[in-house]
Design goal:
heterodimer; A: 513 residues; alpha/beta; Luciferase, domain 3; GMP Synthetase, Chain A, domain 3; 14-stranded mixed β-sheet; four-stranded parallel β-sheet; 27% strand; globular; B: 83 residues; mainly alpha; 4 helices
């Protein structure tokens, strides 16, 4: 009986059995990394960590630039039964120190230039944190890899949820959560007829985000060559995709928008591109259609959905063929074979009938057991995602949006995603975002912020004409506000709804003054 | 820069907000029954016109508006008061 891997080690051991040593597992910018090099890096790291005293139950903080070691280090930490605390490398050293301290990490690994100031901070504050320089670890002897000892329920990756209640919370993903996410990431990458090809190359953006790490390892261990960049430059990303003849790219919608903003040239056309996988945010059909215009050989698209609490991706939508680019991208199904379950529950806590709306609850190997220090949001293994969904069948939903961003207008709840979907269908709309603006009379007004396609006639009239044909009256935006660009949050570049709410509130005050 | 208020510009702006052709907007056109507006939608239309023309209609008057003709008359009355 075949069973999904239950730990990162089992994924890696399967890769050890599957790949030849000359298999190209990753590409660092344009440079191929063979599986042999990857294995050597894992062995050296494991040996160095063992010599430094890392063992079962330890928490190892690290902060590394994109590069081979950023992906072999978690494998080495796992092999010793320890857990990871990755911190984004551009964070100020004092903030990283505070994160390592509050996570109670015993070890911290950084490049030499950052390890020294971190060591000084530790000395000044009498911190028991052991600081290790990456360069020293790489000098370790090559030694055989020890047997895996991690158990599925063991904590492995300490990260932070942006919080379904708006309050960030620390989250420990278990080995089983991580292993499930890696399987789901691989499934997400299987959305075209090329899945059996051995030299399939996919560009990955944000490889050091939690989902990026899991996506990269999950797909790389399953045979997809993952290509990453060292800097977060959309221009460079496209140039490298072109140079390595990438078959696919995976990136959040905001990143895809950024790619579309770059004029096509002989060095960035990426004529080989056949697939785009996205996630982390709402994927507008108009975005897919514009991607199709920009990349003529694009034939398949996929959208993953997940939260930190579900170890990132656990539901997917896949479309093959140009006609599928019209969506529905928000119709998502559980990744098959993982054993996760979903329920769409009404206000009374009972599952709603098929076709009805409610709040999405999930349970299974991808889902964490609880937050650190609180069981809020969990009930008998079920996690309350806070996302509003329409039930389609036992494994499929239509996602309506985050509950905290649902607009309460005149006593009715309105999904900004549904409104946005309608706005995006209007001719000349390049991008849009819909938020609720507080108002004493309405509760909240529906405001649509629109970025118009340059040179195209896009007016309040043209947008209203389209949305009134699609939406019921109570969902029609109360105001169409044209802006130059949609503000994006830090990190993976989701739409910054809070910034739009602040902007709308300020404009409303000036209108009512 | 506010747009100059006139019968034509008022019709254009209201039609744009409603997503309909200006010529289909008659003085007798009922905003609720024929154009499926809700009461909050009328307020939103009012705000659009305030922003466009700089003419304010008190909320108490907005609640009495039922047809396009009512709306135009209210706008015209307050424009004269401003002048």
């Amino acid at each position: 009986m075949s069973q999904n891997p239950q730990t990162l080690d089992q994924h890696y051991d399967a890769a050890l059995r599957r790949f030849r040593s000359d298999h190209t597992i990753l590409m660092d910018e344009g440079n191929p990394i063979s599986f042999q090099e990857f294995q050597l890096s894992v062995r050296r790291m494991t040996q160095a960590l063992r010599e430094a005293g890392v063992g079962p139950g330890h928490l190892v903080g690290y902060s590394l630039q994109n590069g081979l070691t950023a992906f072999t280090l978690p494998v080495a930490i796992s092999r010793l039964g320890a857990a990871c605390l990755p911190i984004y490398p551009l964070t100020p050293i004092e903030v990283r120190f505070a994160a390592f301290q509050s996570g109670r990490a015993q070890f911290a690994i950084l490049p030499q230039e950052s390890a020294e100031p971190l060591g000084q901070l530790c000395a000044a504050q009498a911190s028991p944190l052991t600081v290790l320089a990456l360069e020293d670890l790489l000098q370790a002897d090559d030694a055989p890899l020890p047997q895996a000892i991690s158990r599925p329920e063991q904590p492995f990756l300490l990260t932070t949820s942006s919080g379904t209640t708006g309050q960030p919370k620390p989250v420990f993903l278990s080995q089983l959560n991580v292993a499930s996410a890696m399987s789901a990431a691989f499934d997400l990458s299987q959305y075209g007829p090329w899945v059996e090809e051995t030299d399939y190359r996919a560009m990955v953006a944000f490889p050091q985000s939690t989902s990026g790490i899991l996506m990269l390892l999950g797909t790389a261990f399953a045979g997809v060559c993952q290509v990453f960049t060292r800097s977060l430059s959309p221009v460079r990303f496209l140039q490298i995709a072109h140079a390595v003849e990438a078959d696919a790219i995976s990136a959040p919608p905001a990143w895809l928008e950024a790619l579309l903003g770059i004029p096509a040239s002989e060095t960035n056309r990426v004529p080989t591109l056949r697939g785009v996988a996205s996630g982390m945010d709402f994927v507008a059909p108009s975005l897919l259609q514009r991607l199709g215009d920009r990349f003529p050989n694009l034939e398949a698209v996929a959208n993953g959905y997940g939260l930190v609490e579900t170890a990132t991706v656990f539901m997917v939508w896949k479309g093959y063929g140009r006609e599928s680019f019209a969506g529905p991208t928000s119709r998502l199904s559980l990744t098959p074979g993982l054993g996760n379950e979903l329920q769409v529950r009404g206000e009374d806590g009972a599952p709603v009938a098929v076709g009805e709306e409610g709040v999405l609850w999930v349970k299974g190997p991808s889902v964490i057991k609880s937050y650190l220090g609180t069981s809020e949001g969990f009930n008998e293994g079920w996690f309350h995602t806070g996302d509003v969904a329409r039930s389609v069948d036992e494994s499929t939903i239509e996602l309506r949006g985050r509950r905290k961003y649902l607009i309460k207008r005149g006593g009715k709840s309105v999904s900004p995603l549904v409104v946005r979907e309608a706005v995006d269908q209007s001719p000349g709309v390049r991008q849009s975002a819909v938020v609720g603006i507080p108002h004493a009379l309405y509760g909240e007004m529906i405001w649509a912020f629109v970025v118009a396609e340059p040179g195209m006639a896009c007016t309040t009239g043209s947008v209203m004409k389209t949305v009134r044909e699609i939406l019921p009256t109570h969902m029609v935006p109360d105001r169409i506000e044209f802006i130059e660009s949609i503000p994006l949050g830090r990190g993976v570049g989701k739409v910054d709804s809070e910034a739009l709410i602040a902007l709308g509130t300020s404009l409303l005050q000036s209108m009512e003054a | 820069m506010k747009e100059l208020f006139s019968e034509d510009s008022c019709r254009q702006q209201v039609a744009a907000f409603l997503g309909i052709e200006p010529q289909s907007l008659l003085a007798s056109t009922h905003l609720f029954h024929e154009l499926s507006m809700d009461s909050l939608g009328i307020f939103s239309l009012g705000m659009h016109l305030i922003k466009t023309f700089g003419i304010k209609i008190p909320l108490s008057e907005v609640s009495n508006i039922a047809t396009y003709g009512d709306l135009y008359e209210a706008m015209e009355r307050h424009r004269k008061e401003l002048a």
